[in-house]
Design a protein that fits this description.
Radius of gyration: 20 Å
Distance between the termini: 33 Å
Largest sheet: 6 strands, parallel
Order of helices and strands: HEHEEHEHEEHHHHHEEHEEHEEHH
Number of helices: 13
Shape: globular
Strand order of the largest sheet: 3-2-1-4-5-6
Structural class: alpha/beta
Helix content: 40-55%
Bound molecules: guanosine-5'-monophosphate, manganese (II) ion
Protein backbone atom coordinates (compact mmCIF):
# COMPACT_ATOMS: atom_id res chain seq x y z
CA UNK A 1 0.00 0.00 0.00
CA UNK A 2 1.21 3.50 -0.82
CA UNK A 3 1.32 5.94 2.03
CA UNK A 4 -1.24 8.71 1.88
CA UNK A 5 0.31 12.00 0.90
CA UNK A 6 -1.84 14.42 -1.06
CA UNK A 7 -4.23 16.54 0.99
CA UNK A 8 -7.82 15.28 0.87
CA UNK A 9 -9.25 18.77 0.28
CA UNK A 10 -7.15 19.14 -2.86
CA UNK A 11 -8.30 15.75 -4.11
CA UNK A 12 -11.95 16.66 -3.47
CA UNK A 13 -11.56 19.95 -5.33
CA UNK A 14 -9.77 18.26 -8.22
CA UNK A 15 -12.50 15.60 -8.43
CA UNK A 16 -15.14 18.34 -8.59
CA UNK A 17 -13.26 20.20 -11.34
CA UNK A 18 -12.80 17.02 -13.36
CA UNK A 19 -16.48 16.11 -13.12
CA UNK A 20 -17.60 19.28 -14.85
CA UNK A 21 -14.85 19.84 -17.44
CA UNK A 22 -14.62 18.71 -21.06
CA UNK A 23 -11.61 20.46 -22.57
CA UNK A 24 -8.41 20.02 -20.61
CA UNK A 25 -5.03 21.59 -21.38
CA UNK A 26 -1.86 20.33 -19.73
CA UNK A 27 1.23 22.54 -19.72
CA UNK A 28 4.81 21.79 -18.68
CA UNK A 29 8.09 23.69 -18.52
CA UNK A 30 10.37 24.93 -21.29
CA UNK A 31 13.03 22.47 -22.47
CA UNK A 32 10.78 19.62 -21.30
CA UNK A 33 12.65 16.73 -19.73
CA UNK A 34 11.57 13.15 -19.10
CA UNK A 35 9.54 14.13 -16.06
CA UNK A 36 7.78 17.10 -17.68
CA UNK A 37 6.91 14.98 -20.71
CA UNK A 38 6.19 11.78 -18.79
CA UNK A 39 3.90 13.38 -16.22
CA UNK A 40 2.03 15.44 -18.83
CA UNK A 41 1.55 12.64 -21.34
CA UNK A 42 0.75 10.02 -18.68
CA UNK A 43 -1.86 12.27 -17.08
CA UNK A 44 -3.28 13.24 -20.50
CA UNK A 45 -3.62 9.59 -21.46
CA UNK A 46 -5.69 8.76 -18.38
CA UNK A 47 -7.91 11.85 -18.69
CA UNK A 48 -8.49 10.84 -22.30
CA UNK A 49 -9.50 7.38 -21.16
CA UNK A 50 -12.23 8.87 -18.95
CA UNK A 51 -13.64 10.82 -21.88
CA UNK A 52 -11.98 14.22 -21.66
CA UNK A 53 -10.58 16.07 -24.66
CA UNK A 54 -6.98 16.71 -23.65
CA UNK A 55 -4.13 18.65 -25.27
CA UNK A 56 -0.57 18.90 -24.00
CA UNK A 57 1.25 22.17 -24.71
CA UNK A 58 5.04 22.46 -24.40
CA UNK A 59 6.70 25.91 -24.64
CA UNK A 60 9.31 24.55 -27.10
CA UNK A 61 10.28 21.35 -28.93
CA UNK A 62 10.77 18.25 -26.77
CA UNK A 63 14.09 16.40 -27.22
CA UNK A 64 14.22 13.67 -29.86
CA UNK A 65 14.88 10.82 -27.44
CA UNK A 66 11.52 11.44 -25.72
CA UNK A 67 9.47 11.37 -28.91
CA UNK A 68 8.87 7.62 -28.46
CA UNK A 69 6.54 8.41 -25.54
CA UNK A 70 2.93 7.54 -26.35
CA UNK A 71 1.14 10.77 -27.30
CA UNK A 72 4.33 12.80 -27.87
CA UNK A 73 3.57 13.33 -31.55
CA UNK A 74 0.25 15.03 -30.67
CA UNK A 75 1.87 17.64 -28.43
CA UNK A 76 1.16 21.25 -29.40
CA UNK A 77 4.53 23.00 -29.41
CA UNK A 78 3.98 26.69 -28.65
CA UNK A 79 6.91 27.97 -30.74
CA UNK A 80 5.42 26.15 -33.76
CA UNK A 81 1.67 26.67 -33.22
CA UNK A 82 1.42 29.83 -31.17
CA UNK A 83 -2.11 30.82 -32.22
CA UNK A 84 -3.53 27.31 -31.83
CA UNK A 85 -1.96 26.93 -28.38
CA UNK A 86 -3.30 30.34 -27.31
CA UNK A 87 -6.80 29.38 -28.49
CA UNK A 88 -6.62 26.03 -26.68
CA UNK A 89 -5.75 27.77 -23.43
CA UNK A 90 -8.47 30.39 -23.93
CA UNK A 91 -11.15 27.75 -24.59
CA UNK A 92 -10.07 25.25 -21.94
CA UNK A 93 -12.35 24.40 -18.97
CA UNK A 94 -9.43 23.21 -16.89
CA UNK A 95 -5.67 23.81 -17.12
CA UNK A 96 -2.93 21.80 -15.44
CA UNK A 97 0.55 23.07 -14.62
CA UNK A 98 2.77 20.02 -14.38
CA UNK A 99 6.38 19.86 -13.21
CA UNK A 100 6.89 23.60 -12.76
CA UNK A 101 6.42 25.99 -9.86
CA UNK A 102 6.78 29.37 -11.47
CA UNK A 103 4.96 30.94 -14.41
CA UNK A 104 8.36 32.05 -15.80
CA UNK A 105 9.23 28.40 -16.45
CA UNK A 106 6.69 28.22 -19.31
CA UNK A 107 8.15 31.23 -21.08
CA UNK A 108 5.70 32.89 -23.50
CA UNK A 109 2.93 30.35 -22.76
CA UNK A 110 2.58 32.18 -19.43
CA UNK A 111 0.64 35.15 -20.83
CA UNK A 112 -1.94 32.92 -22.55
CA UNK A 113 -2.28 30.74 -19.45
CA UNK A 114 -2.83 33.70 -17.14
CA UNK A 115 -5.32 35.25 -19.58
CA UNK A 116 -7.47 32.10 -19.58
CA UNK A 117 -10.51 32.04 -17.29
CA UNK A 118 -10.19 28.28 -16.73
CA UNK A 119 -9.39 27.04 -13.23
CA UNK A 120 -5.75 26.01 -12.90
CA UNK A 121 -4.27 23.09 -11.01
CA UNK A 122 -0.58 22.65 -10.20
CA UNK A 123 0.92 19.21 -9.70
CA UNK A 124 4.62 19.69 -9.02
CA UNK A 125 7.62 18.82 -6.89
CA UNK A 126 9.74 22.00 -7.02
CA UNK A 127 10.25 24.15 -3.94
CA UNK A 128 8.50 27.52 -3.54
CA UNK A 129 5.32 26.90 -5.56
CA UNK A 130 3.85 30.06 -7.09
CA UNK A 131 0.28 31.23 -6.54
CA UNK A 132 -0.92 31.49 -10.16
CA UNK A 133 -3.17 28.42 -9.69
CA UNK A 134 -6.46 27.62 -7.92
CA UNK A 135 -5.42 24.19 -6.64
CA UNK A 136 -1.84 23.58 -5.62
CA UNK A 137 -0.59 20.03 -5.22
CA UNK A 138 3.05 20.68 -4.45
CA UNK A 139 5.33 18.05 -2.89
CA UNK A 140 9.06 18.82 -3.08
CA UNK A 141 9.75 15.63 -1.10
CA UNK A 142 8.54 13.48 -4.01
CA UNK A 143 11.31 12.65 -6.47
CA UNK A 144 9.32 13.28 -9.64
CA UNK A 145 6.09 14.91 -10.77
CA UNK A 146 5.33 11.66 -12.59
CA UNK A 147 5.32 9.77 -9.29
CA UNK A 148 3.07 12.47 -7.84
CA UNK A 149 0.73 12.15 -10.83
CA UNK A 150 0.53 8.41 -10.14
CA UNK A 151 -0.44 9.12 -6.53
CA UNK A 152 -3.04 11.69 -7.57
CA UNK A 153 -4.55 9.26 -10.11
CA UNK A 154 -4.80 6.57 -7.43
CA UNK A 155 -6.51 8.98 -5.04
CA UNK A 156 -8.97 9.95 -7.80
CA UNK A 157 -9.70 6.21 -8.16
CA UNK A 158 -8.38 6.30 -11.71
CA UNK A 159 -5.76 3.56 -11.22
CA UNK A 160 -7.77 1.15 -13.45
CA UNK A 161 -7.52 3.66 -16.31
CA UNK A 162 -3.71 3.65 -16.29
CA UNK A 163 -2.84 1.49 -19.29
CA UNK A 164 0.55 0.38 -20.60
CA UNK A 165 1.02 3.67 -22.51
CA UNK A 166 0.26 5.88 -19.50
CA UNK A 167 2.44 3.64 -17.33
CA UNK A 168 5.32 4.00 -19.82
CA UNK A 169 5.10 7.80 -19.57
CA UNK A 170 4.93 7.80 -15.78
CA UNK A 171 7.85 5.37 -15.45
CA UNK A 172 9.97 7.50 -17.80
CA UNK A 173 9.54 10.57 -15.58
CA UNK A 174 10.32 8.61 -12.44
CA UNK A 175 13.43 7.15 -14.06
CA UNK A 176 14.83 10.39 -15.51
CA UNK A 177 14.32 12.57 -12.40
CA UNK A 178 16.24 10.06 -10.29
CA UNK A 179 19.03 9.34 -12.80
CA UNK A 180 17.70 5.82 -13.30
CA UNK A 181 17.11 5.50 -9.53
CA UNK A 182 20.61 6.57 -8.54
CA UNK A 183 19.68 9.72 -6.54
CA UNK A 184 16.56 10.89 -4.65
CA UNK A 185 15.61 7.26 -4.83
CA UNK A 186 15.53 5.86 -1.29
CA UNK A 187 11.77 6.18 -0.90
CA UNK A 188 10.34 2.64 -0.59
CA UNK A 189 7.11 3.83 -2.25
CA UNK A 190 9.06 4.34 -5.49
CA UNK A 191 9.46 0.60 -5.83
CA UNK A 192 5.82 -0.11 -5.04
CA UNK A 193 4.87 2.20 -7.90
CA UNK A 194 7.43 0.63 -10.26
CA UNK A 195 6.00 -2.79 -9.44
CA UNK A 196 2.48 -1.59 -10.28
CA UNK A 197 3.70 -0.06 -13.55
CA UNK A 198 5.44 -3.33 -14.49
CA UNK A 199 2.14 -5.11 -13.89
CA UNK A 200 0.58 -2.69 -16.39
CA UNK A 201 2.97 -4.17 -18.96
CA UNK A 202 5.77 -1.60 -19.29
CA UNK A 203 9.17 -2.71 -20.59
CA UNK A 204 11.53 -0.83 -18.29
CA UNK A 205 14.68 -2.10 -20.02
CA UNK A 206 13.41 -0.85 -23.39
CA UNK A 207 12.46 2.53 -21.87
CA UNK A 208 15.97 2.90 -20.42
CA UNK A 209 17.53 2.12 -23.75
CA UNK A 210 15.30 4.53 -25.70
CA UNK A 211 15.98 7.39 -23.30
CA UNK A 212 19.66 6.92 -22.55
CA UNK A 213 21.18 5.05 -25.50
CA UNK A 214 20.42 7.87 -27.87
CA UNK A 215 23.90 9.16 -28.68
CA UNK A 216 25.11 10.22 -32.10
CA UNK A 217 28.85 10.11 -32.96
CA UNK A 218 28.91 13.97 -32.94
CA UNK A 219 27.30 14.06 -29.53
CA UNK A 220 29.76 11.55 -28.09
CA UNK A 221 32.69 13.51 -29.55
CA UNK A 222 31.36 16.84 -28.22
CA UNK A 223 31.03 15.43 -24.71
CA UNK A 224 34.46 13.80 -24.94
CA UNK A 225 36.01 17.10 -26.08
CA UNK A 226 34.27 19.02 -23.29
CA UNK A 227 35.64 16.74 -20.59
CA UNK A 228 39.12 16.42 -22.08
CA UNK A 229 39.71 20.05 -23.06
CA UNK A 230 37.20 22.21 -21.21
CA UNK A 231 36.79 20.82 -17.70
CA UNK A 232 38.47 22.82 -14.96
CA UNK A 233 38.78 21.41 -11.47
CA UNK A 234 38.81 23.74 -8.46
CA UNK A 235 40.55 21.54 -5.88
CA UNK A 236 40.15 23.87 -2.91
CA UNK A 237 36.37 24.09 -3.14
CA UNK A 238 35.86 20.59 -4.62
CA UNK A 239 34.13 22.03 -7.66
CA UNK A 240 34.24 21.56 -11.41
CA UNK A 241 33.39 23.85 -14.30
CA UNK A 242 32.84 22.99 -17.95
CA UNK A 243 32.27 25.69 -20.58
CA UNK A 244 31.38 25.46 -24.25
CA UNK A 245 31.35 28.35 -26.72
CA UNK A 246 28.98 28.64 -29.67
CA UNK A 247 31.90 27.89 -32.03
CA UNK A 248 32.74 24.70 -30.19
CA UNK A 249 29.09 23.59 -30.19
CA UNK A 250 28.83 24.32 -33.92
CA UNK A 251 31.97 22.32 -34.63
CA UNK A 252 30.14 19.21 -33.42
CA UNK A 253 26.83 20.17 -35.07
CA UNK A 254 25.24 20.72 -31.65
CA UNK A 255 21.55 19.91 -31.34
CA UNK A 256 19.40 20.69 -28.32
CA UNK A 257 19.89 18.01 -25.67
CA UNK A 258 23.39 17.01 -26.84
CA UNK A 259 24.96 18.23 -23.56
CA UNK A 260 22.06 17.08 -21.36
CA UNK A 261 24.07 14.98 -18.88
CA UNK A 262 27.50 16.59 -19.30
CA UNK A 263 27.22 18.55 -16.04
CA UNK A 264 26.87 15.28 -14.11
CA UNK A 265 30.13 13.80 -15.39
CA UNK A 266 32.53 15.56 -12.95
CA UNK A 267 30.45 14.30 -10.00
CA UNK A 268 31.64 10.78 -10.76
CA UNK A 269 34.93 11.86 -9.13
CA UNK A 270 34.50 11.14 -5.39
CA UNK A 271 36.19 14.42 -4.39
CA UNK A 272 34.00 16.65 -6.54
CA UNK A 273 30.99 17.96 -4.62
CA UNK A 274 29.49 20.33 -7.20
CA UNK A 275 29.68 20.91 -10.90
CA UNK A 276 28.67 23.78 -13.19
CA UNK A 277 28.29 23.81 -16.95
CA UNK A 278 28.11 27.08 -18.90
CA UNK A 279 26.87 26.93 -22.48
CA UNK A 280 26.90 29.92 -24.80
CA UNK A 281 23.45 30.55 -26.24
CA UNK A 282 22.43 33.47 -28.45
CA UNK A 283 22.19 36.46 -26.14
CA UNK A 284 22.84 34.70 -22.85
CA UNK A 285 24.75 31.91 -21.12
CA UNK A 286 22.78 28.86 -19.99
CA UNK A 287 23.85 27.64 -16.57
CA UNK A 288 23.41 24.07 -15.35
CA UNK A 289 24.51 22.91 -11.93
CA UNK A 290 24.59 19.64 -10.01
CA UNK A 291 25.84 18.66 -6.57
CA UNK A 292 26.07 15.89 -4.01
CA UNK A 293 24.69 15.79 -0.49
CA UNK A 294 23.83 19.04 1.24
CA UNK A 295 25.58 21.44 -1.16
CA UNK A 296 22.72 23.68 -2.39
CA UNK A 297 23.37 24.60 -6.03
CA UNK A 298 19.84 26.05 -6.26
CA UNK A 299 20.87 28.79 -3.79
CA UNK A 300 23.83 29.72 -6.00
CA UNK A 301 21.66 29.75 -9.11
CA UNK A 302 18.99 31.86 -7.42
CA UNK A 303 21.48 34.37 -6.05
CA UNK A 304 23.90 34.72 -8.93
CA UNK A 305 22.47 33.20 -12.12
CA UNK A 306 18.79 34.30 -12.34
CA UNK A 307 17.55 30.79 -11.76
CA UNK A 308 16.78 28.15 -9.19
CA UNK A 309 15.81 24.50 -8.99
CA UNK A 310 16.49 21.69 -6.57
CA UNK A 311 19.28 21.40 -3.99
CA UNK A 312 21.24 18.94 -6.16
CA UNK A 313 20.07 19.98 -9.65
CA UNK A 314 19.56 23.58 -10.62
CA UNK A 315 20.08 26.02 -13.41
CA UNK A 316 19.74 29.57 -14.56
CA UNK A 317 20.86 32.15 -17.06
CA UNK A 318 23.69 34.67 -17.13
CA UNK A 319 23.35 37.82 -19.19
CA UNK A 320 26.80 38.65 -20.52
CA UNK A 321 29.66 36.94 -22.32
CA UNK A 322 30.99 33.49 -21.51
CA UNK A 323 34.20 35.06 -20.17
CA UNK A 324 32.15 37.23 -17.81
CA UNK A 325 30.16 34.20 -16.65
CA UNK A 326 33.43 32.35 -15.90
CA UNK A 327 34.71 35.38 -13.96
CA UNK A 328 31.48 35.48 -11.96
CA UNK A 329 31.85 31.76 -11.19
CA UNK A 330 35.46 32.24 -10.07
CA UNK A 331 34.53 35.19 -7.87
CA UNK A 332 32.20 32.81 -6.07
CA UNK A 333 34.95 30.41 -4.96
CA UNK A 334 35.07 31.88 -1.40
CA UNK A 335 31.28 31.46 -1.20
CA UNK A 336 31.60 27.85 -2.38
CA UNK A 337 34.22 27.20 0.31
CA UNK A 338 31.94 28.74 2.92
CA UNK A 339 29.01 26.59 1.79
CA UNK A 340 31.19 23.48 1.93
CA UNK A 341 32.17 24.34 5.49
CA UNK A 342 28.51 24.77 6.47
CA UNK A 343 27.58 21.44 4.88
CA UNK A 344 30.43 19.69 6.69
CA UNK A 345 29.53 21.15 10.08
CA UNK A 346 25.90 20.07 9.59
CA UNK A 347 26.94 16.49 8.76
P1 LIG B 1 18.96 21.49 -16.22
O1 LIG B 1 20.35 21.70 -15.77
O2 LIG B 1 18.68 20.04 -16.48
O3 LIG B 1 18.59 22.38 -17.36
O4 LIG B 1 18.00 21.92 -15.03
C1 LIG B 1 17.98 21.24 -13.81
C2 LIG B 1 16.92 21.82 -12.93
O5 LIG B 1 17.28 23.16 -12.63
C3 LIG B 1 15.55 21.92 -13.58
O6 LIG B 1 14.79 20.79 -13.30
C4 LIG B 1 14.95 23.15 -12.93
O7 LIG B 1 14.37 22.81 -11.69
C5 LIG B 1 16.16 24.01 -12.65
N1 LIG B 1 16.40 25.04 -13.67
C6 LIG B 1 17.11 24.92 -14.80
N2 LIG B 1 17.18 26.06 -15.47
C7 LIG B 1 16.48 26.97 -14.75
C8 LIG B 1 16.19 28.36 -14.90
O8 LIG B 1 16.60 29.02 -15.88
N3 LIG B 1 15.43 28.92 -13.94
C9 LIG B 1 15.00 28.24 -12.84
N4 LIG B 1 14.26 28.87 -11.93
N5 LIG B 1 15.27 26.95 -12.66
C10 LIG B 1 16.00 26.31 -13.58
MN1 LIG C 1 10.56 17.01 -12.41
Amino acid sequence: MLSRLVDENNIKELRRLLETCENVVITCHIAPDGDAMGSSLGFANVLNAIGKTVKVITPDMPPRNLMFLPGAKDIVVYTKYQDFATRLLRDADLIFALDYNDIKRIDKVGDALLASKAPKVMIDHHMFPGDFVNVRISHPEVSSTSMLVFRVLCRLELFPYIDKDAATCIYTGMMTDTGNFSYNSNDPDLYIVISELLKKGINKDAIYSKVYNSNTPDRLRLNGYAVEQKMKIYDDCHGALITLTRDELNRYHYQKGDTESLVNVPLSVPDIVFSFFLREETGYIKVSARSKGEFPVNKICEKHFNGGGHKNAAGGEFYGTLEEAVSRFEELVPEFEQLLETCRSND
